[in-house]
Amino acid sequence: MSPADWFTKSQAIDNLISARFREIFEQVKARTIEELASSPERALAAVIVLDQFPRNMFRDTPAAFATDARALALSAAAIGRGHDANLDQAGRKFLYMPYQHSEDRGEQARSIELFARLEEPETLDFAIRHKEIVDRFGRFPHRNAILGRISTTEELAFLEEPGSSF
Fold first, then answer.
1. N or C terminus: fewer CB in 10 A for the chain?
2. So where are the chain's domains?
């Protein structure tokens, strides 16, 4: 996979990730945060497995978001240990992503702080767009149908707008 594939919605990529990493995903889920945060590289790999891969392996199902809290806890532990300072720019983006995926306003504010460190306007803008949605609705409306939540009239109108979903 190339960087161009990282955020592309593709059944072929979803299938590839599921075939290659489903067993690893189950193994990582079973490990403690302490163990997963033991090194910068291990923490980064585990965050990708817990935060990114479920979005591919379980697309359009509640399982796509089921390990978000665990990925966020791991990200926080890794950052708390200063592991992000030992990663390259791409690695730091992935380590920070659980904050961007959170539906908690405080975690979204932390996302902005973290992504601002990267000094990449486009990346920061993407984080700001996520935060604005959570600030406005308290959640990501595009997840509502998947998670069995009832959308408000305002959310339904928002979902009709371009760029309302990621």
1. N
2. 3-159
The whole-model pTM stands at 0.94
pLDDT tens-digit map of 126-165: 999 999 999 999 999 999 999 999 999 999 999 999 888 8
Rounded-to-integer distance, Cα 115 and Cα 96, Å: 7
The span from the CA of 140 to the CA of 78, in Å, is 25
List of residues 6+ apart from 1 with CB closer than 8 A: 13, 16
Q: Which two tokens stand for residue 124?
A: 């920061």
CB 139 within 8 A of CB 101: no
Cα separation, 108 vs 128, in Å, equals: 8
DSSP SS3 for 59: coil
Q: SS3 for 76?
A: helix
* The CATH fold of domain 3-159: 1.25.40
Residue bearing tokens 């690695």: 91
Termini Cα distance of the chain:
20
On whether the CB atoms of residues 72 and 99 are closer than 8 A, the answer is: yes
